[in-house]
User: Fold these one by one.
Assistant:
Number 1:
Amino acid sequence: MPHSSRIVILAEAKFGPLESKTANQAIRYLPDQVLGVIDSRKAGRRVQEVLGFGGDIPIFADLKSSLPLGPDTLLIGIAPTGGMLPQAWRSIIIDAIAAKLEVMSGLHTRLKDDEEIAALARRNGVRLIELRGIPPEYEVVAKGHWKNRQARTILTVGSDCNVGKMTASFELHREFCRRGLKSDFVATGQTGILLSGKGVAIDSVISDYVAGAIELAVDKSVASGSEFIHIEGQGSLTHQGYSAVTLGLMHGVMPDAMIMVHHPARQVDDYGFRIDDLKRLIELHEIILEPFKRSKVAGIAVNTVGMNTREIAAAKRALEDQTGLPVADVLTDGAARLADALERYLEREVIREDIRR
């Protein structure tokens, strides 16, 4: 994303704390580039009122209302189930291209494959930017490079989808950088790629190549001199729809440590299965890696959307009592406590490896 981009975000009928995660992270991390959000349900309000952050960024009823601000990019602001473009949005995209806006999309629907949209973009000289496009070099099978890797890898895993794994990884990376550590963030989804400008949209990779693709991304980070690599997690091992991508990531990264990300207010997932025994879920992740290496969950990052102060405090205490692990919301508490836990754990593992040798 060029720093000079002037973005209007399309989130029609979807803008909110949980539904529009791509929009929300662009607003959180690229605030100087976001001019406004399109959602006719919330038109006339400010982003701060809806999300609790974002300040005075306006919400517009339609694309036309946003054009006087001079945007040059329309960002698709959602990541819906299945990643398909809502049919009602197609006309908005066409209008944006006609107004000479570039369109940035992280959906599985490829705008470049739509003949009308692609032809209109060519005539107007604007780009269609596909964040989920996969270069052929990522179509590789994992080779087990982790066995000789010196850098330490940290993978976020989750009790459900859309709980904040990208945010936790990104904030931990930033905290490691603040400490003067040679840290990197490896994006595995469209929002992370939007923010970092690199990575691989792992849920668009052929299943045979998922582990190999993320291994290659980690190898590139190692080659750049990174010593601590934070990899954005995807899906959840216990989510019936998206468990495969989580398992592929775990086997490709072979993490040295993990951070569990959890939304305590969420009792069931979208298949109706309960999310209640986090200690057991943590053990499940560690057991899956046992045949290959020792890897532990070092802390819990909580998503506190929709929770009040009393509920948050009670949930943190309960999770710490249940698991014995440090718990923090990286957005309100900061990432320092979890970063401390990771550094301590990884240092102990280095000592353990030296003793074994």
Number 2:
Amino acid sequence: MLVKAFLTRKDNPLLIVPCLFNPKELSVEKSNQFAEVNIPGLPSPVFQFVRGNARSVTMDLFFDTYELGTDVRIFTDRITGWDAGSMFSKLPDAAKGLMDIDSDLHAPPICLFIWGAFIFQCIIERVSKRFTMFVPEGFPVRATLSVTLKEYREVDVQVKEISLQSSDLTNRWTVRQGDSLWSIAAREYGSPEDWRLIAEKNGIDNPRMLTPGRELVIPVKE
């Protein structure tokens, strides 16, 4: 049985927003943009690559608190936010959802969607909430969130990948409070999904259990 999927902030992996139920399916989309170049004398244009577009992941997340007898927005608002600070918000005072603008970043935070071995560094681009069950007291106890995640990759990481040389990768990493293998892999390799390279090199069985001060060997990605 797969472990429960969850969302977290890249800069604060201790903040966990769990999914009550795992999604039934994920849709992953990737596209490239080409320009048509018309050349006199040819019967059809040739295509010139312009740029790649970021991957996107779409899914439906189901939330049900009927048996608990609590407002389902206690869970959904941790993702969407939106109403933070209003009378409709179910977030604690001063708390924000993952889609709300962070006061320090002046933008929504970079997130990680983690489901077993699938780790996706992203921003939450779009969410549609549907409340489908209410109790007599008037608050919702069942909701479905249609979520679109857009892949986020730092500019310096993309520039590094263009080079065929890998000698500039950091050889060692000293674990700091709040570090996780997927956040280290995202910084060093540009993809949090490469955390297994570090885990295997350092004999780590539980990727979420890192001791601050431990020195990790960062292997060169072939």
Number 3:
Amino acid sequence: MSDSPAALSGWSVWVAGARPRTLPAAIVPVLVGTATAAGSATELGWWRGLDGWRWAAAVIVALAIQIGTNYANDYSDGKRGTDSAARVGPVRLVGAGLASPSAVKRAALISFGVAALAGLWLAAVTTWWLVPMGAACFAAGWFYTGGPRPYGYAGFGELFVFVFFGLVATVGSAFVQLEEVRGLAVAAAVPVGLLATALLVVNNLRDIPTDAVAGKRTLAVRIGDRNTRLLYVALMVLPFLCVPFVAGLSGRVLAAAALFTVVLARIPVQRVLEGATGPKLIEVLGATGRVQLVFGAIFAAGLFWGVLPASVA
């Protein structure tokens, strides 16, 4: 589906506004976090001791928060005028005049509402301490570009993405299965968070020219083009350095198969080092999302099926 404004109408407008390329950032931590909880029961069936309903609810929460955040970002940037006609990148509904600010804001609130309903069910069957954690996730999504002092405009976006789309989402997905925090989930969350952060970094790298003019002081604007490219490369390389430690120390050696994803990672890294700009970085963004999704799927599968008998409680 083309996301050119001229090619969009009806539901395709809202699908484009949800930014499908970013959705791996929501799905991967749930897959990996849930997989780390595998083997928690004495009797292991196909689900390896996991609760399928809790997993499904966690997926709904993660996707709805990601989509709600995307709509909220669209609304806030559109209202501020950050998404000007000079911007190169996936379509923005308010900035392109495809939807009114009030309609996009309503879409964001509906998405957050869906996440809240699924999250409340998870809290009811686990612990009500998930409620303030969920509220923090909603606040992080809204205030990235919303509110009087958005943290995304101050250069803290990457930190929040690592924390919420890495640590919180991964460990939280394991927690709703085990109802406790384990070291494996925390360790597995690190490469997940690094790849999610790489997605934001390449997005902000592309937008340096227009963000600088609009006064949006992202980390990329603050450290400049060259350093942002080096940061992106580091974020794409470090997850592969983490994998052997997670797989080896946990005894789930099948998780090391995620290392094969380095073949896919080579392409976007090479493009960034070669100086790709503008539309070429849109392709890099898509490639980064694919790396994240394939890495996460293989990593999660290895953690899920690699449970050794001695690790079963």
Number 4:
Amino acid sequence: MRNLSADTKDALTRDIPSEAHCRDALLSGLALYGSRSVRKGSYFITHRNAVARLFQKLSPRQARESFDKLRMTPGRRIAIPGANRERPRKPVRRCDRVMEARAAFLTCGSLSAGAQGYHLEFAPSDGELAQRLEWILRAVAGRPKKMKRGGRAVLYYKDFEAIVEFFGVIGAHSAVLQLEDIHALKETKNRIHRLVNTEAANLERVANAAAAQRETIEFLSSAHGLRHLSKALREIAELRLNYPDESLAELGRRCNPPISKPTVNSRLTALSRLARRLRGETAAR
């Protein structure tokens, strides 16, 4: 099964903004949320080759040459250009905020849509970044929820509509389509389960009712004799004994002439009333 989060990131890296200021905002966001300080300087580090290539494409020429593979891990690191080493001011343009939100997902975000439900989360490297990202997310999509994990702030969405809205805003249209497909499939399965459960419950009720009706008729047969019943009541009593698993509608079609389901129910109710009277007379003796 393909990784929805990884596929979404790879698709987003192929969508390069046409406006220069949007490209700058995307690069700034990648450096902001993907930077790690090491002994030799500040580096952009990622485990996705496609994200590393995007950062390299957006960086100035001199920064593109400092691209190397991390030891012992599948990650890549690229030296952050000097102009992007300081934390930038919050973007003014909405489109630049969208680019920063996209960068945050590419660097510290993850998406899952499994049996436990939908989950989109962001794990920035520190609390100050988490506060900034919360502001960005509220500005372009919905307000995220917050929690602590390992001492770090984590922002997340679990509501399907909020997640779809976020990916629609940042241009991850393939993710929106996949999520809609997953959601439709889950809804279909849930609806089928509900129908099956409802049908099973109905069958159980019908079986219990039929068993109670047979018990009543067997009591009448021994205590009163079916031959003493009226023709209509005797017919429905014999049909219930002969066809214990059939529904009221099916019994009604077997009558001569056929009768409706309410009429069948009315005759069985009359038999039940007679049995109660007989039980009362028997109990009084």
